[in-house]
Task: inverse folding
């Protein structure tokens, strides 16, 4: 991982430095105007929110059934990133909603699903923080159950919402926007990978320090 | 699946909770028909060791072998051969003495639960209080009942955490002779205790723990109390500067 | 299999015997659920008439709140003299213990619901007898979904710090689909003209939730309960 780490950092830096230009050069959308540019941050973050939830859930399952401490460290890193990217989604979402529907929060199905998923992983971090010794397993179960919950949240929120008049603006990407959009998805994906490995490494090193403490005592 | 065994081997077992070491590289062996005393000051790791032996707690490193079995591969069958009297007594205060025992008899799937429970109540000296709720019992009565609960299924390995707590002289001596009887039937008994007077003459073997480590016990005969004190004293300097002393040796 | 069911049955019967002695959980949770309904009444009743759909929501919120209370107390009893450890030592498959505890919780919640449903019917003019079978099906499936996740989490929390706060913190986000499905399904049959296809959809979602989460709980109980 360390060998591709530096190239990844460089690529990420180039991507993020040029992202504002790419986004600025993409055509301005008719109805939404400049606010539409949020799209380039909002959607990649939402994608990573879900990806990260699955990474956390699968790593937790490996931790629970294989008793792998390393998998637990991956789960923790992914869990924190769910909350981080979720925060981006939940901040940019209402700004979009304000422009599109005139209110900050519209109980839009996708945004509500993201909120619920985000809450599950905030709870995941809270157990780890406040649960005391041995709470990693409990947190692991929370992550696994949270992952299994994704389809249920999605279906139930969608059906719940369609009982009311539908107000969502369906976005079809104009050809000129497509390039900029996938550019941003790539940039965010690389950023995610970097943050995940960095956070995992920090945990690895912390675990090593613990080991050394124990060894010194022995 | 029946998982009987006649030998317990603890091999290089360590357990830590985060940064705290509860047990460090403990090894010991125990054959059928012996009573092993687990001595040591508070916080020495006696309860942790008992929890590991009872399979409730997994060791961080090292392993415990019950004859040819181990806790992970032989879970349920092995648990049926273990009895644990914990420091918390594992009794439901709302239920009567009889209901408590009958619940555990049925949980263990024992045959003729009523007869077994009747005999256990007689052993505990609680036959006349059998239908009173446990919440009204004194500590000593609960202790006796909890011991019978742990013995109900005739375990091969009996683990006792401070079994003499709250017992009066008569009950203490009754417990001593009960344990002797179990030893003669081929049980392995491991008891953590502070009561050296009652343990004197009962124990076949002694293991002394301090700060999670097993201390070397001099083979010499003599009163248990003396041997205990000498062992702790002999180990005292090592404990004062463990890192400095032991690091070069490895 | 026979042994599995026997252990589950024995554990459930023990829980109910203990509860029969003290009646603590039944009395306190029923009272608590009733007070919940009243609190919501003051928020959601205008000019003597409840808001549309309010009754279904109130019913399910009261069930969720009272269920959390019952779960917490049930496992507090097992913690009191560490009897949960004794259960873990039983020579049976550990998921059997889980099923036993789950059945005990379900019985308690059924008693609470038996009081709640008529109460909501009376106080909020909800037509609880319009489609009794659909209502029973929704309640059964929803309660099982809620209790299956709750029992697993409460069992694990026995060893954790700040367990009283953490139980709802963990349980509510996970069981939100149950609440949505329960509320919408119940609202569908409480309408002036009951909407059966809608109720069927939500009941199906609940059953699917039950299958997934009971399976997951049975599957994870053993690794979770070994320290």
Result:
């Amino acid at each position: 991982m360390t060998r591709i780490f530096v190239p990844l950092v460089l690529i990420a830096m180039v991507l993020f430095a040029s992202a504002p230009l790419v986004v600025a050069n993409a055509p301005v959308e008719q109805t939404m105007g400049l606010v539409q540019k949020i799209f380039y941050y909002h959607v990649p973050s939402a994608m990573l929110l879900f990806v990260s939830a699955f990474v956390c859930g699968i790593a937790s399952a490996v931790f629970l059934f294989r008793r792998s401490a390393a998998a637990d460290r991956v789960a923790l890193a992914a869990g924190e990133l769910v909350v981080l990217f979720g925060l981006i989604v939940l901040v940019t979402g209402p700004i979009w909603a304000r422009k599109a529907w005139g209110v900050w929060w519209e109980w839009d199905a996708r945004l509500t699903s993201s909120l619920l998923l985000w809450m599950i992983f905030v709870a995941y971090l809270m157990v780890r923080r406040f649960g005391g010794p041995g709470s990693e397993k409990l947190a692991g179960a929370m992550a696994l159950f949270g992952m299994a919950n994704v389809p249920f949240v999605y279906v139930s929120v969608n059906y719940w919402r369609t009982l009311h008049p539908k107000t969502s603006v369906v976005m079809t990407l104009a050809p000129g926007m497509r390039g900029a959009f996938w550019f941003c998805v790539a940039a965010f994906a690389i950023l995610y990978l970097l943050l995940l490995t960095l956070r995992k490494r920090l945990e690895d090193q912390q675990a090593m320090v613990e080991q050394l403490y124990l060894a010194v005592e022995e | 699946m029946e998982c009987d065994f006649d030998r317990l081997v603890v091999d290089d077992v360590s357990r830590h909770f985060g940064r705290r070491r509860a047990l460090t590289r403990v090894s010991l062996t125990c054959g059928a028909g012996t009573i092993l005393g687990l001595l040591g000051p508070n916080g020495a790791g006696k309860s942790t060791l008992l929890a590991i032996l009872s399979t409730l707690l997994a060791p961080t490193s090292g392993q415990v072998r019950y004859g040819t079995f181990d806790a992970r591969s032989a879970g349920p069958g092995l648990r049926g051969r273990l009895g644990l009297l914990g420091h918390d007594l594992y009794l439901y205060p709302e239920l009567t003495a009889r209901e408590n025992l009958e619940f555990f008899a049925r949980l263990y799937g024992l045959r003729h639960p009523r007869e077994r429970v009747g005999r256990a109540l007689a052993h505990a000296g609680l036959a006349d209080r059998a239908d009173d709720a446990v919440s009204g019992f004194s500590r000593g009565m609960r202790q006796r009942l909890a011991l019978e609960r742990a013995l109900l299924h005739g375990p091969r390995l009996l683990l006792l955490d401070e079994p003499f707590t709250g017992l009066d002289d008569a009950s203490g001596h009754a417990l001593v002779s009960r344990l002797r009887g179990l030893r003669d039937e081929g049980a392995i008994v491991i008891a953590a205790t502070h009561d050296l007077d009652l343990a004197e003459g009962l124990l076949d073997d002694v293991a002394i723990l301090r700060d999670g480590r097993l201390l070397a016990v001099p083979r010499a005969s003599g009163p248990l109390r003396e041997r205990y004190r000498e062992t702790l004293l002999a180990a005292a300097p090592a404990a004062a500067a463990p890192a400095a002393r032991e690091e070069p040796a490895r | 299999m026979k042994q599995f069911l026997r252990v589950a049955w024995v554990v459930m019967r023990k829980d109910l015997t203990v509860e029969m002695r003290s009646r603590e959980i039944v009395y306190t949770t029923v009272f608590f659920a009733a007070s919940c309904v009243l609190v919501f009444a003051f928020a959601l009743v205008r000019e003597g008439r409840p808001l549309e759909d309010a009754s279904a929501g109130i019913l399910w919120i009261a069930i969720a709140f009272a269920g959390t209370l019952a779960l917490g107390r049930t496992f507090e009893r097992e913690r009191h003299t560490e009897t949960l450890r004794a259960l873990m030592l039983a020579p049976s498959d550990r998921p059997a213990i889980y099923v036993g505890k789950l059945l005990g919780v379900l019985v308690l919640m059924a008693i609470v619901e038996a009081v709640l449903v008529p109460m909501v019917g009376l106080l909020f003019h909800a037509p609880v007898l319009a489609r009794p079978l659909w209502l029973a099906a929704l309640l059964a499936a929803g309660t099982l979904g809620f209790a299956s996740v709750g029992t697993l989490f409460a069992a694990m929390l026995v060893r954790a710090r700040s367990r009283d706060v953490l139980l709802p913190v963990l349980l509510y986000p996970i069981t939100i689909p149950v609440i949505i499905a329960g509320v919408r399904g119940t609202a569908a049959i409480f309408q002036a003209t009951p909407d059966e296809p809608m109720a069927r959809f939500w009941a199906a979602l609940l059953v699917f939730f039950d299958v997934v989460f009971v399976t997951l709980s049975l599957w994870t109980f053993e690794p979770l309960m070994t320290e």
User: Anything to note?
Assistant: Chain C has a mean pLDDT of 92. The longest helix of chain C spans residues 94-123. Chain C touches chain A at residues 149, 152-153, 156-157, 159-162, 165-166, 169-170, 173-174, 176-177, 180-181, 184, 201-202, 205, 208-209, 212-213, 216, 220, 223-224, 227 (CB under 8 Å).
